[in-house]
Amino acid sequence: MSAASRAPVRSNRARRRVVLTTAGAAVTALLMSACSSGGTSGGGGDTNFVMGKDGISTAKKGERAAAPELSGKTVNGGQLDVSSYKGKIVVLNVWGSWCAPCRAEAPNFEKVYQDLKAKGVQFVGINTRDTSTQNAVAFEKQQGVTYESLYDPTGKLMLRFKKGTLNPQAVPSTLVLDRDGRIAARSLAALSEDKLRKMIAPVLAEK
User: Fold this and answer.
1) Which residues lie closer than 8 Å to 130 by C-beta, 6 or more apart?
2) What pLDDT is recorded for position 35?
3) pLDDT at 168
4) Which of 26, 124, 133, 173 has the most C-beta neighbours closer than 10 Å?
5) Mean pLDDT over residues 22-50, rounded?
6) Residue 46 has what pLDDT?
7) What are phi and psi of 150, to 5 degrees?
8) Which DSSP symbol is given to 8?
9) Distance (Å, rounded) from C-alpha 178 to C-alpha 165?
10) What PROSITE patterns does the database record attribute to this sequence (predicted)?
């Protein structure tokens, strides 16, 4: 075979390598976004959030959006309706057993929950993208999480929130609901114990 006839073959192989490399990069990017360390916006919508220097967004008391109806099956097979906690401050944490930042922050959430539950603060998880409750239950057992989590494998509960409230690619995410069931604060990244406490404290101080 002449050099001229071999050239197209090499060219085709090169093109295939470029396509495969590009496809691989796209898959890698998708996998990385599936457990993002968070972002600054849920995209669009008027949520009245103001971003702080610490990455936590807050909304003034008279400008907060109401949380949607959140109820359904828990990862442990029970039933839970978040509206039953009205009158309490509710900390909603979106997590998945497949998410490394979720594993890192879980002990912080359990510790703060134990410290604040007697003061009228209730924690509720929203487990997402786990294909079975078995993985979610194993995660909770391993991390020592004792509060309930709604099972939301396809993200339907997340989609109930007003546009711009949550970013489906930002897992973990955390919302703090005030005593009237309105969204007072938001984080689209994993939280340290200190940041979580600072996120809750102003809402807890409200009368």
Assistant:
1) 75, 96, 97, 98, 136, 151, 153
2) 61
3) 87
4) 173
5) 48
6) 64
7) -70, 140
8) H
9) 15
10) PROKAR_LIPOPROTEIN, THIOREDOXIN_1, THIOREDOXIN_2
pLDDT of residue 12: 52
Rounded distance between C-alpha atoms, residue 120 and residue 85, angstroms: 9
* Percent of the chain as helix, strand, coil, to the nearest 5: 40, 20, 40
> For 89-142, where are the E strands, in sequence order?
89-95, 121-128
Nearest to 128 by CA among 98, 107, 148: 98
Evaluate whether 114 touches 82 at the Cβ level (below 8 Å). Answer: no
- Please tell me the predicted confidence (pLDDT) of residue 1: 54
Burial class (CB in 10 A: 0-12, 13-18, 19+), 108: middle
| Nearest residue to 197 via CA among 103, 104, 126, 91 | 91
User: Could you tell me the CA-to-CA distances from 39 to 91, 165, 167, 168 in Å, in that order?
Assistant: 19, 12, 8, 11
Residue 144 near residue 154, CB atoms below 8 Å: no
Distance CA 187, CA 54 (A): 10
Confidence band for 59, pLDDT divided at 50, 70 and 90: very high
For residue 81, list its beta bridge partners. 71
CA dihedral 38, 80, 90, 197 (to 10 degrees): -60
CA dist., res. 2 & res. 74, Å (int): 68
Give residue 62's Cα distance to chain centre: 25
Query: Average pLDDT, whole number, for the chain?
Result: 85
